[in-house]
Amino acid sequence: MTDPKHETEHRGIIAWFAQNSVAANLLMLVAIVGGILGYLAMNREVFPTASFAGATVSVAWPGASPQEMEEQIVVRIEEAVSSIDGIETITSTAREGNAFINIEGTRTVDMQAFVNQIETQVNSVNNLPPSAYRPIVSQWRNDDQVVGFAVHGNVPRRDLQRIAREIRDEVAAQVPGANLVNVWATLSEEVSIEVDESALRRYGLTFDEVGRAVRSSSLNASAGQVRTDIGDVSLTARQLADTEDDFNNIIIRQTSGGGTIRVSDVANVIDGFVDANLVGTFNREPMALIVVNSSENQDVVTTSEGVIDYIERKASDLPEGVSLSLWWNSAELYEGRMNTIAGSALWGSLFVLIALVLFLRPIVAFWVTIGIIVAFLGSLLVLPMFGVTLNMLSLFAFLIVIGIVVDDAIIVGENIHNRVERGETGVTAAIVGTQMVVKPVIFAVITTILMFAPWMMLSGPEVQFTRQISLVVIAALSFSLIESLLILPAHLNHMKPERMDGFFGPLLRVQKTIADSMVWFARNIYRHAAVFAIKRRYSTLFFFIGLFMVAIMLQATNRVGMVFMPDIENETIQVNIQLAEGTPWSRTERVRVQLEDAEEQALEYYRDLYPGENDMILSRSTLATDGRVRAWITLPDPSERPGGLPTRDVAQQLREFLGPIPDAEEVRLDTSINNGGGGFRFAISGSNLDELRLAADELKEELRSYDTLYDVVDNLQSSAEELQFTLRDDARSLGISLADVTRQVRQAFYGEEVARLPREGQDVRVMVRLPEDDRRSLDTLRNFRIRTADGREVPLSAVADVEFAPGLNRINRRDRMRTITVSAELTDAAAQGEVESSLEEFFVEWEQAHPNVSREEFGQAEGEREFMAELRTLLILVLGGIYILLAIAFKSYAQPFLIMIAIPFALAGAIFGHLIFGMPFALFSYFGVGAAAGVVINDNLVLVDFVNRLRANGVGAFQALVDAGVQRFRPIILTSVTTFLGILPMMAETSTQAQFLKPMVVALGFAVVFALFLTLLLVPAMYAIGVDIKRFFVGMWTGKRQPGIGSTYHETDDGQPDVDVGTIQPAE
Question: I want to staple 727 with a disulfide (CB 3.0 to 4.6 A). Which of 353, 658, 738, 828 is the partner?
Answer without folding.
Answer: 738
